[in-house]
UniProtKB/TrEMBL annotation:
Stated name of the protein: Sulfur carrier protein FdhD
Gene3D superfamilies documented for this protein: 3.10.20.10, Cytidine Deaminase, domain 2
GO biological process: Mo-molybdopterin cofactor biosynthetic process
Keyword tRNA processing: no
C-alpha cells in the first residue's frame, strides 16, 4: 500500500499576492493492529510498510524477537459495513508455541502520531523484557566526528519530506556511517517500528552494530524501542526526555541529543564515542 501523500487545495499568500493551487500533504490514517484476531492497538500513521510497523510494535512490546515467532501478517477484509478492505487493519498471527500476551483493556492502547507506546511506560518492564541486553553485546565505537555528519545523510535521503515537509524520519547507520535503512512516517515512533519490523522479518535482530538516528526529540518510547531491538546507540537532533535518559543509563544505551552540526549532548554511554566522562561542570549545553 502506498497512500503516502494526498493532494489538497490551498490558498497561498505570498507578498500580498493571493492564489490557489493543489498542495501535496503527508497522508495520516489509523492503523489497527490485531494479534491472533483480537484488537491490540491503534496508531495514527502514514500508510506503507504496515506489516513492518506491526511487527516492530510487537518487538517493542516484548511479544516477539525472531522472524519465526510470526506465522503471518495480513490485512483484514470486512473492516467496513460494506465489507470492503480499507487496508487500515492488520492481523498478526503468532507461530505455534509462541506465548500470546494477555490482551486486556489496559493493553488495548490508542497511540497518536506524537505519543508513541503508552502501555508499558516503566523502566523495570523494559529492563526485564529486553531480548538482548545492550550491556552484554560486543562493544561498538562511533567517532563523534562521524556521528555529526549523519543528520545531513538522513536529510538527503528523505524523499517524501522534500514533497510534503510533514514527515519524521528514522534511520539505521553502521558504525562506519553507512545508511542501512530509512523510514518516514507522520509519527517518529512509527518510523522506528517500521525499521525494527523490517529487521525482524529479514532475520537481522538484534541490531547490535547499528546507530539509530531520529529527526526530532528522543522520548522514552524511542529509547525503549532501541533497547528492545538491541540497538546500542540512539541519536536525536533535538532533546531527550528525562525518562529516556534514565532508561539509557540503566540499560547501557548510548543516548545523544541536540545533534546539530559539530555539536551534541551525550546523556549516557559516552564510552562508545570515546569521550571522557566528567567534563567541566556548568550550565547544560544547548
Amino acid at each position: 500500500m502506498g497512500r503516502v501523500t494526498e493532494r489538497r487545495r490551498v490558498v497561498r499568500v505570498r507578498d500580498g499576492a493571493v492564489s490557489t493551487r493543489p498542495d501535496t500533504l503527508v497522508a495520516e490514517e489509523p492503523l489497527e493492529i490485531r494479534l491472533n484476531g483480537r484488537p491490540l492497538a491503534i496508531t495514527m500513521r502514514t500508510p506503507g510498510d504496515d506489516f513492518a510497523l506491526a511487527a516492530g510494535f510487537l518487538v517493542s512490546e516484548g511479544v516477539v524477537g525472531r522472524a519465526t515467532d510470526v506465522a503471518n501478517i495480513v490485512y483484514c477484509a470486512g473492516a467496513t459495513e460494506d465489507g470492503s478492505n480499507t487496508y487500515n487493519v492488520v492481523d498478526v498471527r503468532l507461530a505455534p508455541g509462541v506465548p500470546v500476551p494477555d490482551i486486556t483493556l489496559e493493553r488495548n492502547v490508542y497511540t497518536t502520531s506524537s505519543c508513541g507506546l503508552c502501555g508499558k511506560a516503566s523502566l523495570d518492564a523494559v529492563r526485564t523484557t529486553a531480548w538482548w541486553p545492550i550491556a552484554d553485546t560486543p562493544p561498538v565505537r562511533v567517532a563523534p566526528e562521524l556521528l555529526a555528519i549523519l543528520p545531513d545523510r538522513l536529510r538527503a535521503a528523505q524523499r517524501v519530506f522534500d514533497r510534503t515537509g510533514g514527515l519524521h524520519a528514522a534511520a539505521l547507520f553502521s558504525p562506519e556511517g553507512e545508511l542501512l535503512d530509512l523510514r518516514e512516517d507522520v509519527g517518529r515512533h512509527n518510523a522506528v517500528d517500521k525499521l525494527i519490523g523490517r529487521a525482524l522479518r529479514s532475520g537481522e535482530l538484534p541490531l547490535s552494530r547499528t546507530v539509530l538516528l531520529v529527526s526530532g526529540r528522543a522520548s522514552f518510547e524511542l529509547a525503549q524501542k532501541a533497547v528492545m531491538a538491541g540497538i546500542p546507540v540512539l541519536a536525536a537532533v533535538s532533546a531527550p526526555s528525562s525518562l529516556a535518559v534514565d532508561l539509557a543509563a540503566e540499560t547501557g544505551l548510548t543516548l545523544v541529543g541536540f545533534l546539530r552540526g559539530g555539536s551534541m549532548n551525550v546523556y549516557a554511554g559516552e564510552r562508545r564515542l570515546g569521550l571522557e566522562a566528567g567534563a567541566t561542570a556548568g550550565a547544560p549545553a544547548r
